[in-house]
Amino acid sequence: MEILPNKETIAYRKASRRVKELKEFYGNLTSYCIVIPFLAILNLMTAPGYLWFLWPALGWGIGIAFHAINVFGIGKSWEEKKIKELMEKEEKGKIKTF
User: Fold this and answer.
1) The 2TM domain covers which part of the protein (predicted)?
2) Domain residue extents for the chain
3) pTM of the predicted model, to two decimals?
4) Cα–Cα distances in Å, from 36 out to 40, 43, 48, 88?
């Protein structure tokens, strides 16, 4: 016999997953805010003629932008609506589970 999770368990798992996503994003952002200024200072102290620290700042910045879009942005509301829609259909018996 299979035990199906109740709505509270599903909500808890969803909230837990969301908190993990937020924690990972803010950890990434914090690392960026610490490492890039360090690289800038190192660059300006050793070779001020060429601002090479801009390359890692740009690359990592693009990565953070995509991470932010994934966590906060486009697609999240659609995904949540679709999940809710499918769960409602399943409750009504329109979709058979295996």
Assistant:
1) 14-88
2) 7-73
3) 0.70
4) 6, 10, 15, 47
